[in-house]
User: What shape does this take?
Amino acid sequence: MECPYCNNKTKIIATEENNQSNYKIRLCVNCSRKYNTIEKILLKDITIVKRDNRREAFDEKKIKQSLKIATSKRPIPIMSIEAIIDDIIKSINNSDNTEISTKIISQMVISHLSRLDLISYVRYASTYQDFISLDHMTQELNKLSMSSSHNYRQQELFSEKFL
Assistant: This one.
C-alpha cells in the first residue's frame, strides 16, 4: 500500500483482528509517518424495510447509535456493543434475503440486550418494541426478570476477549 502523504511504500508495524475486520498500523519507509487502515468484510447489498414500508440501504451506524443511546451511562464495554453489531451483521449476511425489516433487526438487538443488561434492554425495547400499554411492558419485564437464564453478572453472549 502507498503512503497517503508521500505515495511511497509502507510497511505494517502492528495488526489487530476481530470477527469482521482487521486494523493495521502502517509506517511509511520514506517519510516515517504512521497511519491506520481497516480491512472490513463487505456486506451484500441489504435493503431495510421500515415500518411504513419505505426502503433504504442498510446502515450499521444506525444500529450503533441506537445501542449507544440504550447503553449510555451503563457499565457496558464498547467492545460488547461492537460484538452485538458484528453478530447482527453476520446474521444478516448469512441469510439469503436481500431485504430485512427493522422489526427483525430490533428483535436481534433486543435479544442481545436482554442477556447483557436489563436497563439497556428496557431503554431499547421501550422505543423499538410494539408495547400496547404499560401493563404489556410490565408483563414482558416480569417475564424477563423471572427467567432463570438471566443473571446480570453473566455475560456469556461474547467471548472473554470482548469483556
Remarks:
- Residues 152-156, 158-163 have pLDDT under 50 and may be disordered.
- Residues 78-94 form the longest helix (17 residues).
- The chain has two domains: 10-40, 47-162.
- Residues 47-162 form one domain.
